[in-house]
Structure prediction request, 80 residues.
Amino acid sequence: MHLGTFAQIGSVGPRNLKHIVINNGAHDSVGGQHTAAANDKFSFPGVALACGYRTVSVLLTAARRFAEKNQTWASVRSTC
Prediction:
């Protein structure tokens, strides 16, 4: 999905849309290059809010929750 799509969805604000993003950090369709979203500093929730999404939720995996609780990752964000 392109950033323009994010902005368009945010500006229209459809009430019946649930936008789910699963980030694997790679462009698999063109050889698996890393994306900017693979960086811990990148925030899909932040981008969504900046593009006009009214609400944003983040679902963490059990492994990530464990890591966050035990502070084994340098930067773990669960909200924006």
